[in-house]
Each structure stands twice: as C-alpha cells, then as structure tokens.
Design goal:
The protein is an alpha/beta fold and about 575 residues long. The protein is built from 17 helices and 19 strands. It is elongated.
Length: about 575
C-alpha cells in the first residue's frame, strides 16, 4: 500500500503547493471583501467545529492579500496554551513583528556600507506594553491595512483572555482618536470553535466587535475539485465520483480528503461507487478524528442522550436554545437540516450507530428498495389525488361553494294563504343536532285553519315530534325537526355525485273540492366533512403512535427480548 502524496489529512493545506486540492470557499470571498473595504467597521470571527479547514482558509487569505502590499501576520495561539502571561504577549508580538518585517521602512545606507542592523525591539510582557507595541507598529508599517489573523484563539487561558482580548477591543474603540488614528489600519480575524464567546464572559469578548462568519462544509462542487485529482494518481473516476464522495461525507473537508486518500492508497484502476463505500467503511474501523469525537460526546451525558435519539431516527427540532443540541453542533456531530437536527454526514451516522448499537430498521442506504421507497410513495399519493379530482370538484361546487340558506315563498292561489319556508340546504350526516324546516304562514284569505303535513320517502330520515301541524289565521309559525340517520359512507370516486334527500310539506286548507298543495324541499347531503375530519384525526393518531414507537424502538426491542427470556425461563 502506497503512502498518499496527493490528498492530505494532516495539518492545513498550503495554498500554493496544495492548490489542486484546495476547494474554493465562499467564506474566502466574504473575508476578501472586508479586507478591501475602505474602512474597518468590525473585526471578523471565523467559527466552526473541528477540522473544517479554518487554518487552511487563513492561509488562503494570507496568500491572496500579501501580493497587494497589505501587511498580514498569522499567529497560531495554540503554542501559548498553559503559558504564563508574559510569554503570551511576547510570543504574539514576536510573531506579528516577524511577519510584518517586509512592510517596515528601511534606512538607505551609502554604497559599500555594511547592511544595517535593526535594533532589537523589546517585546511586551503585559497588556499595557502590548497596546503600546501595536500602536508603534501601526505607525511604522507602510501598508494602509494591517491584517492580523489570530488562529486557535480558544487556546488563550481563561485567566488572561479578558485582558488580552480587552486590548484588541480597546484598539478598535480608540481608532477614532487623532493621536491614535494608526489603530484604524488593523483588521483582526479571530478563528476558533463556535464556543469562542466562552473565552470571556465580560464586555471584552472578541465577538462583541466581530462579524461572525460560520464556516460550512463543502458543497458538491467543492468536492468535485478534490475528486478531479484522482487522475493525477492514475485512477479513472467518472463524473459521479463527487456525488459518491458527497453522499458519504456531506462535504466534510477532513473526511473528504481522508476518503480520497484511502482510495489513492488502494490504487484501483477505476473509482466506482462500490469502492467509495468500501473505503468509507474502512475509515470506520480506525480513525483518530472519529475516536476523539465519540469520546467528547460520551463525556457529556445530556448531549449523548440527545444524539442517541437522533441516531435512532427520532425527529428532533433543531434549536440552539436547547443546550444539548447546541453542544452537539459545537462538537460537529450534528447539523441544521431545515427544521430538524440531523447527523452531520453518513460516515458520522454509521460510526454513531455502531457506537450506540443501533441496527438498521430500514433497507441500507443505496439499496434498490430504499431508492424506490420515496418515488413509490409519491406515485401512489399522486394517483390517489388524480383519481379524486372529479369528486373534489363536485364536492367543492355542490357543498363547499353552494348557497345554503333557502327562503322560499309558497303561495298557490287555491291555498288561501302565503307560506314562507326557510331551511338550510346542506344536510350533514350523523349530525347530533336535528335539521329543521320553518314555515311562516300569513296573508290568510280564508277564516279556517290550514294543516301542514311533513312527509318523506327516504328510510334514513326520521321526523321529530308531530308530523301534522295546524296553522291558524291571521299568522302562524311552526318548525318541523328531523334527523338523518345514516351510518354508511356512499363514496365512489368514479361516480362523483352528491346524494340528495327530499322532504315534502303538504298544505291542506280543508275546503271541499280543493286539492292539497305540496312543496318539496331538496337537501344536498354532506357525508364527507365529518368523515374527513375523523380520518385526519385517526391518521394523526396513527402517525403519533408509530412516531413514538419509532423513537422507542430500541427500548421496545429490549423489552421484547426480556419478555422472551422470561417466557423461556418459565417454560424450563
């Protein structure tokens, strides 16, 4: 097995020597815009979890701005971890002075004179001396802009962080003073974990004066830039190689480089999807990055239990206001997938599933069955909707948008009176409240009463109370109540017809030789509103049940195993 010479997994990438595997980052453009701005309105803070390429981004930024004559100094603060205060300030000042040396003015000596020796500058050892050093340096540097890149800022001891970052905040606040206008040259970029604000709880936090830039994983195009280097290793890779890599790493810079290095070491003639999956599984066998991540998760019980729930398939709403979720994001274990929290990538998910002992409840990712599950569900849903389009049209027209209130005048000449008949045209099935027809009779031209008989031929209609009512002149009102007793649901999507029920009111004046007069009330029966509400509630209950079952599937499996063992012991 050969040692990888193209893809790199140790340390930051060099923007010159490793330019072929340096994927473009949109965050670099954001940094360059700030550097090229005419004034410094805020410092910058690059925040991310572990190994997303923060230091590489700083190297790229330094390489892009240095040829423009901008003074730039990159300081790795990881070297001052657990060091005394004087070492912190002297180290930072020494690094800044060393990198800004080309931007310092030089004296012109006569020809033949020995090269001038720059007098040694006393390095600061406390906050006051550090501030004076930065002011003097800004006055000497010829560049109109000084870019200080502070990497691994979380390494600054909590004991000294308030004073150290307080100096940097002070020079930002003092830049408007006439005698300290040189401070305007400074643009400071802080780089560290997303918990950078924990460095100081006071007003001197660097985030108080910094615009936050969250460094995200690579997109598919960024992965494609890295995958294009397979040919340099003599490996033919198809255009889908970037998609296969992205499916495993979701653009995680370290894992993408590591997976490509695994493939390079194997030296296959062709890079296929099967090889990508095989080498992705090889990473799961042993990897320092994964091991450290799991150790960090295990050290925090609340975050661990939340991650277990996500890994088991539970739907957890993403919110940084929930401390366990916020901590998991800081560790880089999860990401914001819309409104839900999701494991950051497929390799992480496989590692966490193995760590928590979670078995596959669905077909493995990439299997033909799993690939077809969603299309099949979408097709069935579309088919059901298409079949019901005619019925939905009829239901909308005849029920939802139909006029409901009826106020009919019924006054045949032979009746001897005028009747105003009122009712609701929509009759709802299984409604516990009875339906009604109200009859107001007035303008009698006869002195004898008129009888009205409530009649129907539909067997599922039941009248309430007397079916024959007497109306006395000069005016009289009566209400006929009835119910629709229907337990079935006459639904056929291929015969989209709204059922009707009819009720007759027979008016009889009692006069000899005068035939009774009939009025027919036509009702459209709404069988479906109650059924739809009931179906939605039932479906919601079923979904809630299975969601709870899915979340607790591991506990249920353990309970069933315990019950099985108990049954076997009883049988013995």
């Amino acid at each position: 097995m050969v040692t990888s010479s193209i893809f790199k997994i140790r340390g930051p990438l060099d923007p010159v020597n490793d330019s072929a595997i340096c994927a473009p980052r949109p965050e670099l453009d954001q940094l360059l815009r700030a550097v090229n701005a005419p004034t410094v309105d805020a410092y910058l803070a690059i925040l991310s979890s572990r190994q997303p390429g923060k230091t590489t981004l700083l190297y790229q930024l330094r390489q892009r701005v240095r040829p423009r004559g901008i003074g730039v100094a990159l300081v790795d603060l990881s070297l001052v971890r657990d060091q005394p205060e004087d070492q912190l300030y002297s180290f930072v000042a020494g690094q800044v002075l060393s990198e800004l040396e080309p931007n310092m003015p030089r004296r012109v000596e006569p020809k033949g004179s020995p090269p001038p020796k720059r007098e040694a500058t006393a390095l600061p050892s406390n906050p006051i001396e550090f501030r004076r050093f930065l002011l003097d340096l800004a006055r000497q540097v010829r560049s109109p802009r000084i870019l200080l890149l502070m990497d691994e800022v979380e390494a600054v001891s909590d004991k000294y962080s308030d004073a150290f970052f307080g100096v940097l905040r002070n020079i930002f606040s003092s830049r408007r003073k006439e005698d300290e206008a040189a401070f305007e040259k400074y643009l400071i970029v802080f780089s560290g974990a997303r918990e950078l604000h924990r460095l100081t709880g006071g007003p001197n936090s660097p985030l108080n004066i910094a615009e936050r830039i969250y460094l995200h994983d690579l997109d598919v195009n960024g992965v494609q830039v890295i995958a294009a280097n397979f040919r340099r290793a003599g490996i033919e890779a198809s255009a889908e190689a970037a998609d296969w890599l992205y499916a495993q790493t979701s653009g995680h810079p370290y894992l993408t480089q590591k997976l490509c290095a695994q493939i390079e070491q194997g030296q296959p003639p062709n890079g296929t999807g099967e090889i990508v999956q095989r080498d992705g599984a090889e990473i799961l066998r042993s990897d320092d990055h994964l091991e450290k991540l799991i150790i960090q998760v295990d050290a925090e019980p609340a975050a661990k239990e939340m991650l277990r729930q996500i890994v088991q398939g539970g739907r957890v709403t993403f919110s940084r206001l929930k401390p366990p979720l916020a901590r998991l994001e800081l560790l880089g274990a999860i990401r914001d997938a819309g409104q839900q929290a999701a494991v950051r990538n497929a390799i992480y998910l496989a590692a966490f599933r193995a760590h928590f002992g979670v078995t596959d409840a669905l077909p493995p990712r990439g299997s033909p069955l799993r690939r077809w599950i969603r299309p099949i569900i979408a097709f069935v849903a579309a088919l059901v909707l298409l079949v019901n389009v005619p019925f939905l049209f009829v239901y909308t027209r005849d029920i939802l948008l139909a006029s409901r209130s009826v106020n009919d005048v019924f006054a045949p000449p032979s009746l001897g009176a005028r009747a105003i008949i009122r009712y609701d045209r929509i009759l709802r099935a299984n409604d516990p409240n009875p339906a009604s027809i109200t009859v107001d009779m007035d303008q009698f031209t006869i002195s004898t009463p008129i009888t009205v008989t409530f009649q129907h031929t539909d067997p599922d209609i039941a009248g309430n109370g007397e079916v024959v009512r007497r109306f006395d002149p000069p005016a009289h009102r009566e209400r006929f109540d009835f119910t629709l007793n229907q337990s079935g649901l006459p639904y056929n999507p291929f015969q989209p017809v709204i059922p009707h029920r009819r009720v007759e009111l027979v008016f009889d004046s009692g006069a000899s030789g005068v035939a009774p007069q009939s009025y027919t009330a036509d009702f459209s029966v709404d069988f479906y509103s109650a059924a739809v509400v009931s179906a939605v509630l039932s479906l919601g209950g079923v979904i809630t049940f299975f969601a709870g079952l899915w979340v607790n599937v591991e506990r249920l499996r353990q309970a069933l195993g315990l019950l099985s063992r108990f049954s076997r012991s009883e049988g013995e």
